Automatic annotation (TrEMBL):
It catalyses: adenosine(2030) in 23S rRNA + S-adenosyl-L-methionine = N(6)-methyladenosine(2030) in 23S rRNA + S-adenosyl-L-homocysteine + H(+). This is Ribosomal RNA large subunit methyltransferase J. GO terms for molecular function: 23S rRNA (adenine(2030)-N(6))-methyltransferase activity; RNA binding. One of its GO terms (cellular component) is cytosol. Pfam families: RsmJ. The active site is at D161 (proton acceptor). The keyword Transport does not apply.
Length: 257
């Protein structure tokens, strides 16, 4: 997992899916004045340059956030569009926020942010970017979530977003989600997963759906980023989904279709 660096994939179609739903949920949760906590298991560096050599090497953002903004899939007042605008006002016209920075822009200063990142260089960059706005934990993200749940304040959201380079993650995820859901029964638990041609996620999703029948499962199919690329879509499984999330997910499907 330490080989994975998201700079090559920032802003791609999967990011568009994941970040649009994440931003919508965070924005919805802040409607109430009660404080909330945000936890993330695999944070990355939080800030990316879509004109940087890594992003240009793959060109994946062209089919994701670049296309979405050009075609008006995100209204100017959509929470993700607001987070992107705020990021670019600070860091330039080609900057793109990772999920930690999206959370930082949409949450209130009194809402604590806990981010785990095990890759040393990514963690160092994450610390520089987030500064005092977040608690950065240089540790395994699953361990951090298990240690902190339930957080204080108890309202909040956990984003589980591993690289999925370790195939064992698919087998361990149902038990991990179950454990966190039992400990933190009021928390929104959002799991992102890739749709691959070999359907590695199928058995995992069957187990998750059986244990959490009221969860939201939303999958978005799209063409491979390039010839031979294995990812053909993006999925989100959300335990305790906020009211209205299904409608936002359906809107994204209609846009990309």
């Amino acid at each position: 997992m330490l080989s994975y660096q998201h700079a090559y994939h920032a802003g791609n179609a999967a990011d568009l899916h994941k970040h649009a739903l994440l931003a919508w949920m965070l924005d919805y949760l802040t409607v109430k004045p009660k404080p909330l906590s945000y936890l993330e298991t695999h944070a990355g560096r939080a800030l990316y340059d879509l004109a940087g050599p890594e992003a240009l090497r793959t060109g994946e953002a062209e089919a994701g956030i670049t296309r979405a903004l050009a075609r008006g899939w995100l209204a100017v007042d959509h929470p993700l569009a607001r987070a992107i605008a705020a990021t670019r006002a600070q860091h330039g016209a080609t900057a793109y926020p990772g999920s930690p920075m999206i959370a930082a822009h949409l949450l209130r200063r009194t809402d604590p942010i806990h981010l785990a990142e095990l890759h040393p260089a990514e963690a160092e960059a994450l610390n520089r970017t987030m500064g005092r706005r977040a608690h950065v934990h240089l540790e395994d993200g699953f361990a951090m979530a298990n240690r902190l749940a339930p957080p204080e304040p108890r309202r909040g959201l956990l984003l589980i977003d591993p690289s999925w380079e370790v195939k064992a993650d698919y087998a361990r995820m149902p038990a991990f989600v179950d454990r966190i859901a039992r400990k933190w029964n009021v928390g929104v638990i959002a799991l992102w997963y890739p749709l691959l041609a070999e359907a590695r996620h199928a058995e995992m999703l069957d187990s998750l759906a059986a244990a959490h029948p009221d969860a939201l499962r939303h999958e978005l199919a799209f063409p491979p980023a390039r010839e031979g690329h294995g990812m053909i879509g993006s999925g989100m499984f959300v335990v305790n989904p906020p009211y209205g999330l299904a409608e936002e997910a359906a809107r994204l499907t209609a846009c990309i279709a």
